[in-house]
Amino acid sequence: MQFIKAKNLANYIKIKPCPFCGETEEIAVEEYEHGAGLRWRIFCCNCMAGIDRGYDQSPYPLIDLWNTRAYTGI
What we know:
Layout: E1 3-5, E2 27-34, E3 37-44, E4 50-51, H1 60-68
Antiparallel strand pairs: 1-2, 2-3, 3-4
């Protein structure tokens, strides 16, 4: 499993601050084992707000979703 600060994935990636606590440096992506294979989630290490849709096989769609604030959740 991998745990990576989102801003360290690639030089071109920009991460917006957490919409709940305003944290800018501690936004992370994590790869984890799921029954259907490896999946990714994104979250703020400060307040633990995050997105885990359960089907992302790459961190990049989650970063886009985090930055657009389009996630409606369940």
